[in-house]
Amino acid sequence: GQQVMQIPQYQHVQEGEDFTTYCNSSTTLSNIQWYKQRPGGHPVFLIQLVKSGEVKKQKRLTFQFGEAKKNSSLHITATQTTDVGTYFCAGQTGNQFYFGTGTSLTVIP
Amino acid sequence: DAGVTQSPTHLIKTRGQQVTLRCSPISGHKSVSWYQQVLGQGPQFIFQYYEKEERGRGNFPDRFSARQFPNYSSELNVNALLLGDSALYLCASSLYSGQTNEQFFGPGTRLTVL
Q: CA of A30: which chain B residue's CA is closest?
């Protein structure tokens, strides 16, 4: 069945270092969304990518959708303590959303 | 404007019981989706409803059912509860179905099955 895997599962970085999480789907996706979930909170939408090879930037965050629309990445430049949380990708196939396994980011001050 | 609201916030049930969870979407949103999130894992898609019709169903047993009302609010029902049903149940609303758009999540209902 459909699977969306993310690596790494956990990442600890010093404040100011960069961070990247990778998302891989077993099947082609129509689009992909990224969410951030703080501990004890609910997922909050960050961005949506639709086109093959699409790259979008939000301040220090860069999102990329692979050419084959089966993988995606989120890169954070110069992490801050406010970046702490779990980052999930969510791929859509038909009317179903498949969330990735998530990457938990810890930023050490 | 109010965000997505869910009730109750917490619920404790015993095995075999039935539970109903409720969700009110953001005003103007016609699509509601339900997710199950087990601790330490990503949300798992259960259902999507749009304009009161089921538009998507995840890989969950028939013990799980849902409906959407004319005011676009939604209920998720789970029958014959199992210990493994213990999880955070999230509701998300969005403007459309099909064409992806931003999903706004509610705070969730924490279900504990004893």
A: B100
- pLDDT single digits (tens) B44-102: 999 999 989 998 899 999 999 999 999 999 999 999 999 999 999 999 999 875 555 78
Domains and CATH numbers, chain A: 4-108 (2.60.40.10)
* Residue B55, domain extent: 5-104
- For residue A88, list chain B residues with Cβ-Cβ distance below 8 A: 42-43
pLDDT given for residue A1 in this prediction: 61
Please give the Cα distance from B48 to A32 (Å, whole number): 17
For residues B64-87, one letter each, b for 16 or more C-beta atoms within 10 angstroms of the residue's C-beta and e for the rest, the string is: bebebeeebbbbbebeebeeebbb
**CA-to-CA distance for B91 and B104, rounded, in angstroms?**
8
B33:A45 CB<8 A? no
Smallest CA–CA distance, residue A59 to chain B, in Å, is 19
User: What tens digit of pLDDT does each residue of B8-48 get?
Assistant: 999 999 999 999 999 999 999 999 999 999 988 999 999 99
